[in-house]
Amino acid sequence: MRWLWIDAILLHEPHTRLVAIKNVSLAEDHLHQHFEAGSDGPAQPMMPASLMLEGMAQTAGILVGSVRQFKEKVVLAKVTEALFESDVFPGQSIRYDATIERMDDMGASTKGVISRFDHRGGGWIDIGRTEIIFSHVDQNRAGLDLPEHNFVFGENFRAILGGLLPKRA
Amino acid sequence: MSHDDIFTKVQGVLVDALGVDDDEVTPTARLTTDLHAESIDFLDIVFRIEKAFGFKIGQGELFPDNINDPKYVNDGVVNAAGLALLREKMPHVDFSAFAADPKLEKVSEVFTVTSLVNFVQNKLAASATA
């Protein structure tokens, strides 16, 4: 399994906004532990909020990385806000809508809105919001021994990033 | 904007950024040792102060850039040239206690709530005269 929590990018407004989507499938193993059947009732698979936060972090991180053509290593530094008001179940889709609030050499502050789509009707409904700060790790290395290659935007992301990535040499 | 108004806004910034209570944010409280700010919180504080007061803060303007340069630091101790640089670049900070034992690893301890208030006051005064 790959650590990818978005399926596709729907919209990219350079330097400003990135929207990504994830379809939640019952084929995902993790859903069967969250929550499995127990003495308190039958299994109730649903998308963990922590992984929705990761999906938003990947969306916002790609947006921040794209500003400098993925030359900087962009790492999640701090989640200043994460609010989830509703659950997401298999068969539903999640939309991550990330915007940059502020960015400089040291890092970036982003806002995100998480929405859910029920294919049986109801349209998109906002179910959460986030504020995440990213650090440009090359500018804030603080003695950390990190690899020189860009381990953040590696091969895993290539299929999703498509045209956002610089062409292969 | 009065000193008290600035203090109140700075207090709000630190409550939001660090998850501390209002009454912990006293003028003499140190961001690291008293309010438990970590290095990445400094970036958050910079962003929030910009938003709260409507001005831009340059890199290294509020908190120092990495000064770990042999010109300024020897064996982990900030030398006289380093101290002079810090005082010149950061007039909002009181370095007197730090100067007595200027270990680089302790430089983040110099930042108090008052130093943030002083910084904002200086920035607002500079923009008013510009």
CATH class of chain A: Alpha Beta
Mean pLDDT across every amino acid position of chain B = 92
Total helix count of chain B?
A: 5
What is the string of helix and strand elements of chain B?
HHEEHHH
Kindly report the average pLDDT value of chain A: 88
Kindly give the count of domains of chain A: 1
* Rg from Cα of chain B: 15 Å
Q: Indicate the percent of residues in helices of chain B.
A: 40-55%
Shape, per Cα inertia axes of chain A: elongated
Biggest β-sheet description of chain B:
2 strands, antiparallel
Indicate the radius of gyration of chain A in whole angstroms. 17 Å
- Name the pair of protein chains with the most residues at their interface, and give those residue counts: A-B, 14 and 13 residues
Q: What low-confidence regions of chain B span 5 or more consecutive residues with pLDDT below 50?
A: none
Question: How would you describe what is shown here?
Answer:
Chain A has 169 residues and is α+β, with helices and mostly antiparallel strands. In chain A, strand 1 and strand 2 form a beta hairpin. The longest helix of chain A is centred in the middle third of the chain and has 19 residues. In chain B, strand 1 and strand 2 form a beta hairpin. A two-stranded antiparallel ribbon of chain B has the order 1-2. Chain B is mostly helical and 130 residues long. The mean pLDDT of chain B is 92.
In short:
Chain A has about 170 residues and is an alpha+beta fold. Chain A contains 2 helices and 6 strands.
Could you list some keywords that capture this structure?
heterodimer, A: alpha+beta, B: 130 residues, Non-ribosomal Peptide Synthetase Peptidyl Carrier Protein, Chain A, 2 domains, 3% strand, globular
